[in-house]
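Example 3.2
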Amino acid sequence: MDNNTILNVQAIKKYFPVRRGFFQQVIGWIKAVDGVDFEIKRGKTLGLVGESGCGKSTVGRVILNLLELDGGKVTYRGQDINDLSQNKMKTLRKEMQIIFQDPFGSLNPRMTAGQTIEEGLRTLGIRGHAERKRRVSHLLDMVGMSSSGADRYPHEFSGGQRQRIGIARALSVEPSLIVCDEPVSALDVSIQAQIINLLKKLQNQLGLSYLFISHDLNVVGYISDTVAVMYLGHIMEYAPAEALFDNPLHPYTRALLSSIPTPEPDDRRERQTLSGDVPSPFNPPPGCKFQGRCPMVEDRCRKDEISFYEAGENHVARCWKVVE
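Structure, written as tokens:
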């Protein structure tokens, strides 16, 4: 791992037990994340995209050590976070923050916006009340809100304003890495654009690194430097954003990109509709996890575990056929 890499994820796994019966015996495991690899450079954004239920949010929570890892390794600034004690991990959490999908559910309804942001400032050791008030006003200004909003409660704000408060809360502890877990999916389209532009502005100002989790490829393509396409707990394709959008290789990536709406009424591009359903992570098929929906499937795909194949500079796809 080079010095420019802030986060390195190697073959991480997260399984959830399935229990049944009076004694709640474990009868199997849901393989939510099953061997995921990627890295995030300092000041850059990795977009993690895929259908609902593919394991994207679980990856984000595993990285932050909110969920215990079942296999693999997460390295932050060259340090394996799974080997850290509880006290050391608490210190590290100042550098690794999260912005949640639901801006209302992630805020305490009994606390004002100012009190919510002040929690992080206390973590930094800022004890003076006047200094905390000054920092709260500065953080609200950074996210495009008036300092007068510090005395209002979450229900008094719009969805976009609540998400700005969530961003200010994340910034209060001066992090280096932020996991953005579908931060705009609950917002109107016009508000989505404002929040995305705000995130890009803050990244340029503060040198932040983002893991941006979303199912919206338009948003991911706009904000990301690198994109990882996820399906059933696996990364299917990993490439620089421009290369992935200009030359998608994996059949799943092609199908996702073909489904993006276009503003051109005369656009007659061919839609690649996927047949079948997503397999259950409780009993995934052997071989390629995409085999049941892939138009290019062959016998080899159903038998052998499919590895990554290089298709260009920093561009890999978990499909032997499209590369060969």
